[in-house]
Write a structure and sequence with these properties.
homodimer, alpha/beta, Rossmann fold, six-stranded mixed β-sheet, four-stranded parallel β-sheet, 14 strands, elongated
Chain lengths: 428, 428
Amino acid sequence: MKRQPIVRMRPRNAFYAQSGGVTAVINASACGVIETARRHKRVIANVYAGRDGIVGALTEDLIDTGRESAAAIRGLRHTPAGAFGSARYKLAGLEKNRAQYERLIEVFRAHDIGYFFYNGGNDSMDTAHKVSEIGRLLGYPIACIGVPKTVDNDLPITDCCPGFGSVAKYIAISTREAALDVASMARTSTKVFVLEVMGRHAGWIAAAAGLAGQKAGDAPHIILFPEIAFDREQFLAKVKGSVQRCGYCVIVVSEGVRDASGKFLAEAGTRDAFGHAQLGGVGPVVAQMTKEALGYKFHWAVADYLQRAARHAASAVDVKQAYAVGKAAVEFAVQGKNAVMPVIVRNSSMPYRWSIGEAPLEKIANREKKVPRTYITADGFGITAACRRYLSPLIGGEDYPPYRDGLPVYVELKKIAVKRRLKQPFAL
Amino acid sequence: MKRQPIVRMRPRNAFYAQSGGVTAVINASACGVIETARRHKRVIANVYAGRDGIVGALTEDLIDTGRESAAAIRGLRHTPAGAFGSARYKLAGLEKNRAQYERLIEVFRAHDIGYFFYNGGNDSMDTAHKVSEIGRLLGYPIACIGVPKTVDNDLPITDCCPGFGSVAKYIAISTREAALDVASMARTSTKVFVLEVMGRHAGWIAAAAGLAGQKAGDAPHIILFPEIAFDREQFLAKVKGSVQRCGYCVIVVSEGVRDASGKFLAEAGTRDAFGHAQLGGVGPVVAQMTKEALGYKFHWAVADYLQRAARHAASAVDVKQAYAVGKAAVEFAVQGKNAVMPVIVRNSSMPYRWSIGEAPLEKIANREKKVPRTYITADGFGITAACRRYLSPLIGGEDYPPYRDGLPVYVELKKIAVKRRLKQPFAL
């Protein structure tokens, strides 16, 4: 019988921060981190969360998650957006802004933080990697573990990104529902409906709309990807054909669509009397284009934050994976790992089976995974069977939040601050 | 012991049509009509549905609902939009367009239609009323029963309108979710978020967003109603105050908001180089206004059809009421009533209790019920406790559709046409 060696370490604190655009399930990752840390008290004494992400670390504004009840932490699993606050705040390069990194280490040292969990996209993985480096350089070793999150689904290595599955599900549901609406009234009313979705560089969210249709003629009839240069004539011909064949045309457009010269379509819109850039996004631009060229009555919707906050329609698979990467991050730290990120590994598509793997932060940082050409139909306006096989499992299952009085009950944390230990404040 | 008199009538057919903008639950009313008619075979032989609403009656394009399975009809209860097609087609006055009414009677006569169920808003109740009149004048008596439907909730007499509760729930949920998103990132990102909702004349949908907040400081911080003339200075002061106090400001704006001169705010927007009216709706106009005056970073969403098609987030109360008015309409017809509409009667708010009443079509037709001033706070930007008591029960309960592969399963009917019996076609 083999005996496990017992490693006795002094427990140290962990720092957890949410970064960048929030999602319907980033708090499920927070829940995974905190609940798992609470089961490893001999290694992790307490988890401090940054108020407003990394900004909370720089300003020594730490939230004591130990003061939150088990029920409140459990409730994070079904609560959208960033419960501790997130930040759009990119730390510059080490040479350019060494003071920021030194400040981080100073704060971590003051609060005996030995573990850094950074929940974000590729920029954040870059930051986490740099923090690990600077810690080593400054003689303050800190285990930096990334926790993947992005609705854009554009991180490399991992099969998919927590946050994406729920947006994908929301957009596929919304497209299917709105298409039924348009179909029922097309004879005497709206013939062209445009839904604008997120995705400035990668068209994964737009692609997900394709799941709404199942057979030829089903909506969406046209998907506009940022990966495909927009061609006005081909597009208009496709709209016309769709209206002639089906009676209507549902178009899903990614906010990041550009023309052949690389110019965002959204920028091609109108300007007001003062020359200010137009108000609308790409959705209204595309809708208006069909009206002017073909004369069809149109409507458009811009889902904006509604899509990434829609916890009420979250994918059960996404929620599970978001929790799992939070849990795995803590387990990696407990195992003594550093500068890594848990990734989702697809073992099988049908039936869908996945597990958690591991990747070095430096291989994640600052890289983008776009929708491959093989996932887009030859004409550039739809998704292929291969894309459908990839996407479909990610929206699988429903995971409804609890409701009271007709509305989802989302938790609100106490967010009690940890007492400051440093004298000097830090100017952002 | 009292014996029921047995009335022997020759069973006749019924005509059912959906009219105007569709909703998440208008098919639940269709389900109520058809299922109830099937239980009254001695009175109603079969239900023919108009393909694309009243247009189907004029063109003698009738769908034989008798050819649809019980399971398909049952599935209508959880299927959004208009399963038979709806139309924006208003019949003119009797004098002006007598030919249309005569054609209707001709089609009804050809198909032995003795009952006319018209599922729509106030325009449709006007039409149903006129059909009843013209039938009498032309010696073809037909029982015309209205079935209320409108997301706008603006029909008089009835306490609320089927279709509204589900939009209200969707908007309240979406506002709560998007507000959490904005709150989590306001420190370093978006400070003003604008959600544009439907409601060109009445602000009921905008009011429903108010349910998202429960205590002082909760979003939405500002609701813009069509019932209140827009005052730019007061509005901007309120935005500024909200950002200063809460760190962010969530605004819900009704598409029908007008300034003091009666001009739609949406029309105050930009024009393109050719002088075409601006693309955006009122949402982007309002967002841009805050940016220009106060400099805040903003985002905006326009829910458009997503809100009224969102069966995935339907109110259980709304679904029940939609079914109940369809059922009651048939029961009224069986009882020999004419030119009436079932209405929803509120018996109690807490706990919520309702029943079905009855109102003459002429009292419903062409009237609009707006949000009363007592439901809007003194400053014009929020809802009062009385409004909350009225609205809250209407979004009560969840009624999820079945899902397969991560998406709601909505029924698609066979829609087999009834054989035409008239020689001449009808030009719309």
